[in-house]
Amino acid sequence: MTQHIFFDLTDGLTTLRDEVGVEVLDLDAALQQAKLAVAELLSSGELGDNANWRMIVRDGDRTVLTTLCVE
């Protein structure tokens, strides 16, 4: 059964909330999606020079499942 997952970004001051999310099979698939998204953001330079960004992975109830450092 799939679950709906959201990927929010925060630097402690600004939070970019994922209002769409994605459907994944499990937490491992969600982590793979999160890591791909972080890699894309870093390679595109969209996050600028701020080294304090974190990606917060939430489930459909917006409960935090895990947090990844963006580096």
Question: The biggest beta sheet, please?
Answer: 5 strands, antiparallel
Number of strands: 5
Q: How many DSSP helices?
A: 1
Q: Strand pairing plus helix content: what structural class?
A: alpha+beta
Could you spell the SSE succession in H and E letters?
Answer: EEEHEE
Give the overall average pLDDT. 86
Q: Tell me the distance between the termini.
A: 32 Å
Percent strand equals 25-35%
Provide the low-confidence segments as ranges. none
> What is the general shape?
globular
Radius of gyration: 12 Å
Give the helix proportion (percent range): 25-40%
Question: Number of domains in the coordinates?
Answer: 1
Pfam family, one: DUF6894
Organism: Methylobacterium soli
InterPro entries: DUF6894
Domain DUF6894: 6-68
What is the element layout, followed by pairings?
Elements (H helix, E strand, L loop, with lengths): L2 E8 L4 E2 L5 E3 L2 H18 L9 E5 L5 E6 L2
Antiparallel strand pairs: 1-2, 1-3, 1-4, 4-5
